[in-house]
Task: structure prediction
Amino acid sequence: MKTPFNKPFLGDKGLNFLQNVFLSNHHSGNGIYTKRVNDFFKKNYNVNKSHLTTSCTDALEMAALLIDVKPGDEIILPSYTFVSTANAFALRGAKLVFCDSESNFPNIDSNQIEKLITNKTKAIVVVHYAGFACDMEKVVSIAKENNLFLIEDAAQAIDNYYIDKLGNKIPLGTIGDLGTMSFHETKNISCGEGGLLMVNNSIFDEPSNIVLEKGTNRTSFFEGKINKYEWVGLGSSFLPSEFTAAILYAQLKIKDKIAKRRKDIWRIYHDNLKDLRDNGDLLKIDYPDYSTNNAHIYFILSKSKEERSSLIKHLKKNGINAVSHYLSLNKSPYYLKTNEIYDLKNSDKFSDTLLRLPLYYQLKNEEVERICSKIKSFYSQK
Result:
């Protein structure tokens, strides 16, 4: 038996919706399915304004344009993240100021952010790793006190919530000035490639239309507000086709069904591997109590880089594709071309020890049990 790391899921109505687009006269973006996706987020997650994009990378690049990042501006962001989080701001000439992770969870350590702020800092970017919320009350407070923009990279966090001190559940991606989300094929809700920009600060409502429309005021033209549209700012081609929107909408319609299955798989993993964490074979993980769990990723922490490599080989030999995740960006070859090497001990620890296990809608319970048994056999042999 072979178990892949991921397997895309089309959804019950995906083919029907694709056929509708194919037979229509509107294949480019901003059609009926794009509108339905944006309306879905407004209704279900109280999103003020959203733009469907070709990827979360594009959504982040839109965010960098909207806050007007210029060469020399400093952006505080986690080192333990995918390169798109950094690229969006590096492309605008920003200086990247990397912050370490928490000691027992990969999210940015909010206690270390304030000391990184200078008079050149423009924004704080947080990444909700595995869908789990960062300490948003603290980060929001820091951003407000220092008059900084706050951007949420919620690529992995659809249908997940920050729980505030009053017990209110706030959708991730809707707390900062801008939020971004991914619908890549590895995500809970996917359309192959796709993303979303959530506009939570009203000062970006009209500018976000301009950025999405390649720097033109075409949206105002279509709304009848002006007689002709012109090039009025910077932008690019961020909008996906209606085919992409149709696939995405089909999955959004059954998001609760997908969520339930993923959470069932997550619990089977968690319950089966409890003994390995309790007896010290695996490192313990401190899941934040101010976050819900959307079961985007199930990951384990080995005790060393060498042990993780051996475990990956052991699982691969048994037909199981488990993968490591990010490398600390502060130690990447590109960053080190113009910057000196320095350590962020927690980010480096997760780079060396974190292992993602297969998790997708079609994964059967017996396959999850088999993966757990192979992990246990690895440690029993040790």
User: Anything to note?
Assistant: The first strand starts at residue 49 and ends at 53. The two ends are 24 Å apart (CA to CA). The chain has 14 helices and twelve strands.
